[in-house]
Amino acid sequence: MYRKRKDGLEVFLVHPGGPFWANKDEGVWTIPKGEYEPDEEPLAAAQREFREETGFIATGDFMELGSIRQKSGKVVIAWAFEGDCDPTQLKSNTCKVEWPPRSGKRLEIPEVDRGSWFSSHRARIYIRPEQIPLLDTLEARIIPRA
Fold first, then answer.
1. Which residues pair with 67 in a beta bridge?
2. Structural domain that includes position 64
3. Could you tell me how far CA 28 lies from the centroid of its own chain?
4. According to the model, what pLDDT value does residue 146 have?
5. Of the candidates 45, 111, 33, 39, which has an alpha carbon nearest to the alpha carbon of residue 76?
6. Most buried one in 1, 27, 91, 144, CB count within 10 A?
7. What does the alpha-carbon distance between residue 45 and residue 104 come to, in Å, rounded to a whole number?
8. What per-residue confidence (pLDDT) applies to 23?
9. What percent of the chain shows pLDDT beyond 90?
């Protein structure tokens, strides 16, 4: 999700939930994303994942931003849409993780623990580095060049 402001473009990013990410900030925020089933259209999956991770509904005109490969090997296909939300109203679904690692204990955590609006400049500091090309594409399409 993005929004236009007098001083430029802002993007909505989410912070992963759980104890592993609790003390990490710069370079770990992400676009809301997830996996899709083989019979599911990628855009429909992106809309579903956005709702599951934030509680907000993704609507409007969707702009495909392309795809990137994360360090884990996961391929992320991304879309952008113009919108607005109050990050304090974020409600994420939960998932179970093994914590501490290799302990055999399962802990239920929110997939994301918070969301925030970032200027496109600040987003480059906080977003996962592999996702920066998605910001580049969004900016190239939204911000008029002189």
1. 77
2. 2-142
3. 10
4. 53
5. 33
6. 1
7. 31
8. 96
9. 91
Q: How many domains does the chain have?
A: 1
Q: Which two tokens stand for residue 91?
A: 């409600």
- Identify residue 132 by its one-letter amino acid code: I
User: Which stretch of DSSP H or E encloses residue 126?
Assistant: helix 120-126
pLDDT band at 36 (very low <50, low <70, confident <90, very high): confident
Q: What DSSP string runs through 47-115?
A: HHHHHHHHS----S--EEEEEEE-TTS-EEEEEE-B----GGG----EEEEESSTTS--EEEEESEEEE
CATH number of the domain residue 94 falls in: 3.90.79.10
Closest CA to 93 of 106, 78, 108, 82: 108
**What is the pLDDT confidence band of residue 3, given thresholds at 50, 70 and 90?**
very high
Whether the full predicted model's pTM is greater than 0.90, yes or no, is: yes
Tell the residue number behind the tokens 């599911």, with chain if given.
40
For 123, the enclosing helix (H) or strand (E) is: helix 120-126
CA 146 to CA 140: how far, in whole Å? 12
The number of residues making up the chain comes to: 146
